[in-house]
């Protein structure tokens, strides 16, 4: 609907009195009259010309007896705008909105029949219900196209043009019957031309006039008569997680280059939208921002770099777009066509709303396609990059740090082994509090301290005495467990059906979680206002799946690495590399994100600095971790950060910039989460 109003606005600027726009509609009909002059049958010729002349009268009436925007809207709808949605009710709502848009610009004249209100157009062949993602199968090597198909398509287009303005039920029925007849004839011609039977049957049987039917395919040629692609594709694709589209995956894998089994449904709409465009056409989506930063976005990023000529991606720091969708969104604009050496992508971040004309309220970063491809390539393969974190959200100080620290920074994955915590498949069985342990009398040898939630960590150093749960860790078989309370508890668990849960059922012994290597850190999956890296000094401590664990390769650098992991620089990096795709304002970090964290190598911290770091860190790791808004002002943190910043060679202004950037990033994601609630 928005595109209609935008086009009406543009037409109003280009042609204020509609002189050119009206004449354009008349010329189209006059051209048809010229064609009709060649009809041999005199009766048919005269009737056709008379009908076309009546159309010219109708065009003049539409412009003369209504508001200026009425004629603009009516003929834009007829000639320029098409829509498809998989839900029939959405199609009906779209039609209703277009009807209302036309009605409000009609003038009432009580002296005229029906008070001068013109009948509304018939939009059945303009807005259809179908599965946009699924195309029809066509011959791989098509023989010379039968010219009769083109003639039938032209006839079908003319039938639908006449149906658009048909006023009486009898006239509408006549054109619908003709539509059905021609579709069947086209189906037979296509079948003779080598099209699969399934395709020809779909085309022949698709009935645009059945308002409750949903086509299981979409094809612009057979549904709209568009053979050379659209000029513009606009969409807000559905947010459906990959777990809910398992049945579609084989078809999606067959049809889409950007396929990956982990991708959510909206990813494929990007590629499909580009397929539907002509060369030079514009693709515009408002969509989830997840693909900018997650692993499954890598194939889509590569597809866009390979198949578009230029792009803009827009992000608002302040506002969410949709109240009922628990995600954050971006607006993307891509120009379809092959890229060249000058192709580039503009990343625009708005402090207010997307599109704010005030240049002071936006930040722009531009990268060439070549630069983006290089940044996302590992071992000669494009594996993806943090387009959202690095180019939309990252402050300027981040790029300064990368430049000044380029010989000191490493990826966290280069210095540590990162693993996800235990996934039990039945937390209520495996996590036992003191009351349940006492109730069952489970032997201590089968219980290990575990951190179930970061909320149990009040300080940087994990204190096992503060943890609420023990984890059932039992590697023995039933024979070895005979007579133990642990076996009695396991058998009770089976009576409750825990052993049938998917994660449990797949284990050789469903109660045996395996072993978790000792680790040095817990790395949070979810961050709100507190952002830190809990350090573990208890070798027997285990971790649940709400965190990741990290074990350093070089055991001699553990103490220095602990400090670096809890510096303000580490907070900044996590805010950039983490994901802010959820509408609740949480920062989420997963394994691939964590492995990419920029980390100052502990090897660069000399002995003297290392000793100073440890002295600064000792009181800091014992005290409670505060909200980042308070944490940033603590004197022990300042002392620690100063040593890190010295190693990077940052000026005082740049050091202040790090703290300011951290506060701004956290405030931005929390403020954005509140934006709809405050309206």
What does this structure look like?
There is one protein chain. With about 675 residues, the chain is of the alpha+beta class. Among the domains are: about 230-395, Rossmann fold (3-Layer(aba) Sandwich); about 395-420 and about 515-679; about 425-510, no CATH class. Helix content is about 45%, strand content about 15%. The protein contains 28 helices and 21 strands. A 6-stranded mixed β-sheet has the order 3-4-6-5-7-8. β1, α5 and β2 form a beta-alpha-beta unit. α25 (about 605-620) runs antiparallel to α27 (about 635-650). It is elongated, with a radius of gyration of 32 Å. The model has no long low-confidence stretch (mean pLDDT about 90).
Spatial strand order of the main sheet: 3-4-6-5-7-8
Number of helices: 28
The mean pLDDT is 92
Task: Report the β-strand fraction as a percent range.
Answer: 5-15%
Largest sheet: 6 strands, mixed
End-to-end CA span: 23 Å
DSSP strand count: 21
Low-pLDDT residue intervals, each spanning 5 or more residues: none
> Which structural class is indicated by helix and strand composition?
alpha+beta
Kindly state the percentage of residues in helix. 40-55%
Instruction: Please give the radius of gyration in angstroms.
Output: 32 Å
Shape: elongated
Indicate the topology.
Layout: H1 2-14, H2 19-36, H3 42-64, H4 68-79, E1 83-85, H5 88-103, E2 127-129, H6 147-165, H7 169-192, H8 197-205, H9 220-224, E3 230-235, H10 249-255, H11 266-275, E4 277-288, H12 298-307, E5 308-316, E6 329-336, E7 344-350, E8 362-368, H13 369-375, E9 377-378, E10 381-382, H14 387-393, H15 396-404, E11 409-411, H16 412-415, E12 416-420, H17 427-430, E13 431-432, H18 434-440, E14 447-451, E15 469-472, H19 478-481, H20 485-495, H21 502-505, E16 521-524, E17 526-527, E18 542-543, E19 547-552, H22 558-565, H23 568-577, E20 587-588, H24 591-596, E21 598-600, H25 607-622, H26 628-631, H27 635-648, H28 652-674
Parallel strand pairs: 1-2, 3-4, 5-7, 14-18
Antiparallel strand pairs: 4-6, 5-6, 7-8, 9-10, 11-21, 12-19, 13-15, 14-15, 16-19, 17-20
Helix pairs in contact: 1-4, 2-3, 3-4, 4-5, 6-7, 7-8, 11-12, 23-28, 25-27
